[in-house]
Amino acid sequence: MPTQESFWDRQADSYAKKPIKDMPAYERTLERTRAYLSPADHVLEAGCGTGSTALLLATDVAHITAIDVSSRMIEIASDKREKAGVGSVAFRKATLDDASLETASFEAVLAFSFLHLLDDPGAAIRRIHDLLKPGGVFISKTVCLGGKVGLWPLLIKGMQIVGYAPHVTYLDAERIETLVAEAGFDILETADYPGSLTSRFVVARKP
Ligand SMILES: C[S@@+](CC[C@H](N)C(=O)[O-])C[C@H]1O[C@@H](n2cnc3c(N)ncnc32)[C@H](O)[C@@H]1O
Question: Which protein residues are within 6 Å of ligand 1, measured from CB?
Fold first, then answer.
């Protein structure tokens, strides 16, 4: 099975060219995310991919640190940033474990289509809790593969064997919300975003 880094390095150029599948759902995600952001906020985006979301939210906040494990994703995002002339977003190749990310330093952490790719989403959510200031918000949208039966698991396993899919963790809405609550968050908002695979949108506050 490819690592996340090698898989997404290989996918990055085609990912950058792919149009957003469901534009109304994406716009709704941006709108609900903006509802929790303020102009003075310092924001972290984990698994930023090619940077589109961070660049769109740049004018809503003071600064966004956007990280991704794939150096090719970060190269593409940085080129887009240069072209757009956006100074308030910093793209960096890093994971949440990066020691330079300071605890209690962000007003918001964003993670879109990210948690299901991690071996241990619970550990990532606990780390996000540490990185947030008290009162800070964790805003996530996560692909739910949990409960999928029949062809889905077989298809994914087959794709992993031939290198066409990275590791995925089978999460569902209940499991995501349990992990978020167990990390010490208060859940503020949830929603299902339908698609070929449902995504669960969860907003939670660090008390
Ligand atoms: C499905 S893409 C989503 C990208 C973007 N958030 C979006 O919504 O379009 C997942 C991204 O997470 C990144 N990723 C996977 N595991 C990671 C990790 N442990 N730390 C940081 N980034 C990771 C991948 O490189 C990839 O760019």
Answer: 4, 8, 46-49, 67-70, 73, 95, 112-114, 117-118
